Amino acid sequence: MAKKSKSRTIAVRLISMAMTGYYRTMIRPRVHRPLSMLKYDPVVKKKVLFLEATKGGKAK
Amino acid sequence: MPAITANVAQLPIRLRNFFARYPPQIYSSLAAPRPTPPAGQASTEQPLPSPYTPDRDAKGAQKEDRGAFSVARSMLWDSRSAPNPFLPKKIYSTGKWMGPRYGLRQQADLVKLAAKYNVEALLPPGPKSTEYKAAKLAERGLRIKGTGIGQKVKGHKWERTMEARLEDRRKAMMEMPEMIRLWKQRGHGRGWRQWPKR
C-alpha cells in the first residue's frame, strides 16, 4: 500500500511579538525556511514583528 | 410626649385599642432602656463578621459570634413584669416557647399604621420597627457579594490576569525597535534562533 503523500505546502501561524495573542495564518512551502515579517497588530495599533511559531520553538 | 398624646383621639381605633391594652408608659420603645454596648467591647466601632467572606468554610475560619453585642438584638427588649407583645416568650417551667401576642403580619400592620400617624415610638420594640430594621441592615451590610469590608469577588480570569498581561505587552513593545533592528540585521529572519513556541 502506498504511503499517503504529504502536501507540498503547510499552514503556519505567525505570532505577534507584541505579546498580544494576535496571530496570522499563512501558507508556505514545506521546505521553505520559517516565515517572519513586519505586520500590523491591531491590538497595539502598530507594525510589529511577526514570527512563525514552530513546534518546540526550533527551526532550521 | 405631650405633642404625641394630644391627638390620641384622632388615632384609628386599632391603634387606640392597642395603646389601651399596652400603655406606652410601660411597653413602648421609649420606655425600654436604650441599648448600650458593654464596657470594653466597642462592637459598634468594629464591623461584624460578614457571612460572605470567601473563606467562611475554610478550616479555622472565625464563626460569627452569636453572643457578641448587637445593637439590633438588644433593641428587642423584653421584661418579666411587662412581656413585650411583639416578641416570643420562653416559659421556663415547661421549656416551651409561646408565640408573640401579635404575629409578624399584625405587627407590620400596626407599625405601618403608627408610622402614618407619627406615633411609632409608642409601640413596643419589635422586629418590624423602622429602627430595628435600620440597625439590622447596618449590621448585616448590603447583601451584595464583595461590598463588605475585607471581601472581594473572584472575577473572571481575564480580569484577574489583565494587569500581568498588559505589563508583558508593555515590556514587549519597549523592546520591539531593538528586536526589529536585530531581525533586519540577521537577514530578515535567516539567522534567527529564538522562534516562538506554539
Automatic annotation (TrEMBL), chain A:
UniProt GO molecular function: structural constituent of ribosome
Keyword Isomerase tagged: no
Gene3D superfamilies from the UniProt entry: Ribosomal protein L33
UniProt-recorded name of the protein: Large ribosomal subunit protein bL33m
Keywords, ordered alphabetically: Mitochondrion, Ribonucleoprotein, Ribosomal protein
Top-level taxon of the source organism: Eukaryota
UniProt GO BP: translation
Compartments it resides in: Mitochondrion
Main location as per UniProt: mitochondrion
UniProt family annotation: Belongs to the bacterial ribosomal protein bL33 family.
Keyword Nucleus: no
GO cellular component, one term: ribosome
InterPro entries: Mitoribosomal_protein_bL33, Ribosomal_bL33, Ribosomal_bL33_sf, Ribosomal_zn-bd
TrEMBL record, chain B:
One Gene Ontology term of the molecular function aspect: structural constituent of ribosome
Disordered: annotated span: 30-65
Biased composition (Basic and acidic residues): 54-65
Residues making up the signal peptide according to the UniProt record: none
Pfam family, one: Mitoc_mL59
Large ribosomal subunit protein mL59 domain sequence ranges: 14-185
GO cellular component: mitochondrial large ribosomal subunit
PANTHER family for the chain: 54S RIBOSOMAL PROTEIN L25, MITOCHONDRIAL, LARGE RIBOSOMAL SUBUNIT PROTEIN ML59
Protein name (record): Large ribosomal subunit protein mL59 domain-containing protein
